[in-house]
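Q: Hi! Curious about what FtsW/RodA/SpoVE family cell cycle protein looks like structurally. Here's the sequence.
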Amino acid sequence: MQRIGAHQSNRTSASELDWGMILVLILLMLIGIYSLYFAILNGGKGASPIRAVIMQLLYWVVGAFMIAFIMRFDAFQLWRLAPVAYGLGIVLLIGVLFFYNRALAASAGAKSWIAFGPVSLQPSEVVKPAFILMLSKVVANHNRLYPEHTVDSDWLLIGKMVGVFLPVALLIALQNDLGTLLVFIAMLGGITIVSGITWRILGPILIAAGTFGSLMLFLVTSAIGRSILGAFGFQAYQFARIDAWLHPGQDTSDTGYQTYQNLKAIGSGQFWGSGFGNMRVFVPVRESDMIFSVVGESFGFVGGAFLIAVYFLLLYLMIKATFKARNSFYAYIATGVVVMVLFHVFENIGMNIGLLPLTGIPLPFISQGGSSLLSNMIGVGLIMSMSYQQQSRTFNESNDFSL
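A: Let's find out. The predicted structure is below.
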């Protein structure tokens, strides 16, 4: 049988690039560089803003090369790459449990980083695109084998998806990184919803998930519940984040101080902001999870709304690419990437304005950190490869997918 993309011309015209998505990325890069520079300048405790900006720009350059590289992969090559990338991701997640950075673990409470001299890698971030690829392959292959959805076949599909999810979830749980685990749960949920599973199964699952979430909210807000959760491994700093979320002004001496100062900074920006680079409120470690406060304080409600609009434009372009996908494998990949970015934006901005508790989730393309930036750039590369490849190649789902 003819392989996916075989015997097709491989055009490389610049007209095949998604320039809309490229321009949005450039705009996010400029906003991110500005925010990072002034975040460190106004609270970096002696850190060099110039050095931080240079490092972040280097990650952007690496990310741009990765996008250009990934765009060369057609659907068949991504199909073959999925289990390899997933397997390497599992190895990285196992490795970080033994070789994690002790200093970062002590300050952040999670064993999530491996240090290479001055550079740190967070394996759970770079595993996200690999997880999306593997989950998309499992769903696409199952639906090829079982074109008619039945209750039995759908439960089998759920079992396969859980089989992909559980090793990653267990290893991230051992890192004590609840925030990142929530992202993987969101990606699993997004791809599950579009997988074609009957609502006779999805309905009860969603109701059960909502009930479980309500139960967890009750447990974390009651003394008895916290004692129960503590027996299952929940840490004091996680409860402190909940308290800081529910009562940001009650205790500003420890965990609540960052949340309180962050809200004060965003509030001080009012409608138009305090002006370019004019920040008067100190926010600890603003350059990572709290970087949205730089935009909020500098440019007020208008600046924050503009940044959210830019994210919506990026998500629109991604969803547009999803609808152009000529096969379900591409569609599942695009869904996973869209959910990944959307959940990061929703959770980060939500916790910055006090709607959600702190979870340590960075703001995509804005927060300091090479691992998160590269993960998102890989995701964008996967989306852009769809438009690029589909203008010159074909992907026939009736072909032989076996490896």
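A: A fun detail: Residues 47 and 312 are 33 Å apart (CA to CA).
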